[in-house]
Design goal:
Layout (H helix, E strand, L loop, with lengths): L6 H4 L8 H7 L25 H8 L14 H14 L3 E5 L2 H12 L5 E5 L4 H10 L6 E5 L4 H7 L4 E7 L11 H10 L3 E5 L4 H4 L9 E5 L13 E5 L1 H14 L5 H12 L1 H21 L3 E5 L9 H7 L6 E6 L3 H10 L4 E2 L9 E3 L11 H7 L5 E5 L5 H14 L1
Parallel strand pairs: 2-3, 2-4, 4-5, 5-6, 10-11
Antiparallel strand pairs: 1-7, 6-7, 8-9, 9-12, 11-12
Helix pairs in contact: 2-4, 2-11, 4-11, 5-10, 14-16
The site of pyridoxal-5'-phosphate has 15 residues, from helix 5 and helix 6.
Protein name: O-succinylhomoserine sulfhydrylase
Pfam families: Cys_Met_Meta_PP (PF01053)
Subunit structure: Homotetramer.
Amino acid sequence: MAHDWDAGRLDSDLSGAGPDTLAVRAGQQRTPEGEHGEPLFFTSSYVFRSAADAAATFAGEMPGNVYSRYTNPTVRAFEQRIAAMEGAEQAVATSSGMSAILATVMSLCSAGDHVLVSRSVFGATVSLFEKYFKRFGLEVDFVPLVDLQRWERAFKPNTKLVFVESPSNPLAELVDIEALAGICHAKGALFAVDNCFCTPALQQPLALGADIVIHSATKYIDGQGRCLGGVVAGRAELMKELVGFLRTAGPTMSPFNAWVFLKGLETLRLRMQAHCASAQVLADWLEQQSGVEKVYYAGLESHPQHELAKRQQKDFGAVLSFEIAGGKEAAWRFIDATRLISITANLGDSKTTITHPATTTHGRLSPEERANAGIRDSLIRVAVGLEEVEDLKADLARGLAAI
Ligand SMILES: *Cc1c(COP(=O)(O)O)cnc(C)c1O
């Protein structure tokens, strides 16, 4: 269906555009219909003009879509928008945050390689490395996130990949990404950062020297708790390996989810700003309360890495945790006394969530592993959403009154 417009004017010129503009417009290629919103390509396969064209496209001699496990225009638009926002040459979307990590390791590592992982990573990430990758001959060691000397000493001649989450969950610890990138490169290892908690709106690991940035799009990129997805971004030479793995193994992103995430990215910075502002108010307030023994939030001057967080991130994120007087029973009483906040382990939603890490997200760890990770029975985590901050404060005050 041809049209008479100048095709060049259908798509925006984004040369020199700033991050907010890229978040709204990057990756969109209009079809001849001239749609303003991003089109959703709900199709598993694509047709060809002739048998010869089909053969040429399959052989890679002619550009074009073949099958949505390989490419899908809606997924591609999401990938290009994320790449623009992370300052990456290329991004590759996956079916979940976990499959983003799976695809990274499966495509870049082999049996016999050694991988270093920061100790305080997401629970399923620990299981993926400990329980599954080790079965296929990968050597895995865990290193405390904040300690650069321990990192330096943990490398072996066969260390291929270093994987960290910064800031960490639930204690909001950081690693100096630029410094660790320097160590990784001196040792000849690739450096991957799970940027789920900050998103590209607050932190750009590639600009700080990381080789690979990984997201669970399920969290802030969606931002409203609807869809599962993941994405990996970095140099084209690395992403080529991921594309090969994903089109073969299959954990690719659904076009519907890609469409939801595209719309999520458009409001990401504004949402993050509001999330962070409320988190700061609540962290400041919690620190003043007599029933609260310690608050973990990098926006507090009491946080040991406050200065690093200011340097490395645009803001401090929206996940905070705190220890209350008393143990597990008191923590459960606190959580059960809230009436507004959702009791769920998810985060990155407009709805505020509260969880008891020791018996949920970190419940499968042995008491010793939990102690190592600094997860005490008196610890409560809150992922601050977008409700009125005074309502959230009142709800947390109900919790405090109950202990
Ligand atoms: C949720 C999460 C993941 C896993 O993402 P899914 O989309 O749930 O598979 C990985 N890393 C971090 C930091 C997360 O919070």
